[in-house]
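Protocol step 4 of 6: structure prediction from sequence.
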Amino acid sequence: MRRLAAASLAGTAIEFYDFYVYGTAAALVLGPLFFPTFSPLAGTLAAFGTFAVGFLSRPLGSVLFGHIGDRHGRRPVLIASLLLTGVATVAVGCLPTYGSLGVAAPLLLLALRFLQGLGLGGEWGGAVLLTAEHAPEGRRALWSSFPQIGPPVGFLLANGVMLALSASLTDAQFRSWGWRVPFWAAAVPALAGLLLRTSLAESPQFQELAERGTLARVPLFEVVRGHWRLVLLTAGGLAVGYAVFYAVTTWSLAYGTEKLGVSRTVMLGCIMAAVVIKGVCTPFVAMLGDRYGRRPLCLAGCTASAVWMFPLIGLLRTGEPLLMFLGFLGAMLAFITMFAVVAAYLPELYEPRVRCTGAAVGYNLGGVLGGALTPVVATAVATGDGPPWGVATYLTAIALLSLVCFALLPETRPASATEQAAAASAPA
């Protein structure tokens, strides 16, 4: 389990590094480089629009790689998705800008972002399922939380590289070539991740299905026919996590640097500090999920998000590093209260023969609902001179939607030996 968890964590960290480095670049430099004929606001919106394309392609990736995972195994998904995302990310770093290539530059940027999302759409399902299906029942949330630590690690790597470059280069150097370095650097960990993942064993539950000859022929059709309500509820439930995370890590970065005049280094430092604490807390929150259930933690995370969005905007608006950090930290803790357990929760909601497709599609549709639109909507509504309370209203509404969705989902935590013994001895 340690080797499996380490390989899953490393892979998700690498793939989310690729995904997040684009989001940071979109907030800082991609607008003027690829959309120079737009106004500053329109250029930022256009850059966030290409950012959103990665989320729109993630459900397609979950369908494609989910089919592979349910038909041919979880392990091939991990290798193919990592290779696709890594190649697309390095290619972004090699892409000529609008000044060199004209209108073809943003079109190619859009295509590469689409491929990034396609690969990431398969990554989560493969990594989580391989870990969850190997894990013992009473510790499944804990072991499954390790792939969930990968995204904050990837975020810290991406923003750490951006922070170092931003602090050591002049603004002209950063805009000229410095922003490309994090994309080029993706090649090294991607190759290391591929070597690590080739040694993993296939999931025992998939092997059992293959031996019995009960694999799903067309997993997507079975999911749509028999689990469509479950997919919609899981997508709606997860939407708030994506919305909160990208409001903090992408939109607030652009808002703080452009509207408040806070330096890139300070904004990145505040955000990264909150993400570090979130990552450290992940396995401890997951242990609560093994003890008290998945659904109660998801409901608590949604409630905390709904309560915290207005304080978050108020603290961000001050432009003071410590207060901004406290706002980001509260949002990240609300986020991880949900997302620490969803890696165990989603696979348990779906039957094994369509689990890779169903869990991945639900997870990535949540990304479309919460992650794709949040930076665009937040940037559009935060155009006045006062505090952007419209952003807080938008995020609170998504939190309430997710709360309703989780309330309609069942609990899936396997009963412990003690609980089973108590149930067996109870009078009829």
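Step 5 (inspection) to follow. Confidence is low (pLDDT under 50) at residues 416-424.
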